[in-house]
Amino acid sequence: MQSTASSFHARAPINIKLIGLGGCGGNLVSTLKLQNDQVDLVVANTDLQDLAGRTTIPTRILLGPQQTAGKGAGGRPDVGAAATVESEPMLAKALSGADLVVIVAGMGGGTGTGAAPVVARLARQLGALTLAFVTMPFQVEKGQRSRIAEQGLASVSKEADAVVVVSNQKILNFVDPRTTLSVALTYSNTILAAAISGVIDQLSLPSLMQLDFSHVRQTLSQAGQTMLGIGSATGSDAAQRAMQLALKCDLLEGNLQKARRVFASIIGGSNLGLIDVHQAIEQIHRVVANEIDLVIGVATSPLASHRDRVRVTLIASEVASFRQSLSSGQANPKASVTHTISSNDLPPFLKLHRRGCL
Ligand SMILES: Nc1nc2c(ncn2[C@@H]2O[C@H](COP(=O)(O)OP(=O)(O)OP(=O)(O)O)[C@@H](O)[C@H]2O)c(=O)[nH]1
């Protein structure tokens, strides 16, 4: 029988703003089910009609009313960017005070592609850790859209602290080839939603590990383009199986062994097993290199639907942090200080287990 955790760490609430840009970003923010109703939801678009339909989102911003008159960016990122610059005062008001700004946008169109770098720069100027979750287009959208998407990804990667890429095309590998476009998009949105909520829920649910926002900030700050792994499982060893799935996730573009910074989120129900969590964490240590910045959050959800389920989200970057660069003689003055997990970071129950007391 597994023991379960009984003590939680209180942590200072952090101010999180989630902003969806353009059609794709708006779709995601409208459908995402977060477990924290304190997260401020914002959608912004050049398309007035699209915004009018997003009635459940408290803050809706029409980008560039002078430039586009609410008629969209017509697939042109330069128009999307100019419209966003025009609306910077409104955006600054909506994003001010945020510790963490999460941007969601589809690359390939005009608004999301043009707006994402501008919003990322603004959010960082306002002092927030800025994460962007972006989609890349389907192959059938090739040509102009792909080129626009690649350029957009490069621009947003320069401005945001960390960029998580979900390739719509890659999603097709997981679904029936006869599937419809709308089903494929729904599947893609489910993956994006899992990744976004893995970060946001981890930072807002009761925590079992002494994870604080400054550690997350240190690990993801200026991390560049990242690798994403997600896994979900139920049952008595759910954390281990969810971790295995996340570590082997087909979405992981890149080699986890080359990762220099990893953020790992483990979220389970109130009966999350301690030994199970410990062994899941051991699995990460077996895969990644020794000298990395690793920040691990373990949180529990009060939702009945989460009782037996464990969700794991991994966000990994190959970019070394400042401290690692210094030790390897390749200082990168833009990068931040690091947090390497040590036994001091483990909650008491895991330390006891490590000593064989559980
Ligand atoms: N996963 C996912 N991808 C989407 C969705 N909607 C659009 N996309 C992708 O995002 C890209 C950009 O589409 P939109 O977000 O609609 O475009 P936009 O940013 O509003 O740009 P304009 O319409 O030109 O103003 C598309 O090429 C698709 O690949 C969605 O709901 N889910």
Automatic annotation (TrEMBL):
Its annotated function is as follows: Essential cell division protein that forms a contractile ring structure (Z ring) at the future cell division site. The regulation of the ring assembly controls the timing and the location of cell division. One of the functions of the FtsZ ring is to recruit other cell division proteins to the septum to produce a new cell wall between the dividing cells. Binds GTP and shows GTPase activity.
Domain Tubulin/FtsZ GTPase: start-end pairs:
15-207
- Which compartment or compartments is the protein found in? Cytoplasm
Subunit and interaction comment: Homodimer. Polymerizes to form a dynamic ring structure in a strictly GTP-dependent manner. Interacts directly with several other division proteins.
Example GO CC term: the record gives: cell division site
Member of which family? Belongs to the FtsZ family.
Gene3D superfamilies documented for this protein: Tubulin/FtsZ, GTPase domain (3.40.50.1440)
Q: Know the name of this protein?
A: Cell division protein FtsZ
Domain Tubulin/FtsZ 2-layer sandwich span(s) in chain numbering: 209-328
What are the binding positions for GTP in this chain? 110-112, 141, 145, 189
GO biological process: what's one of them? protein polymerization
Per UniProt, the keywords (alphabetical) are: Cell cycle, Cell division, Cytoplasm, GTP-binding, Nucleotide-binding, Septation
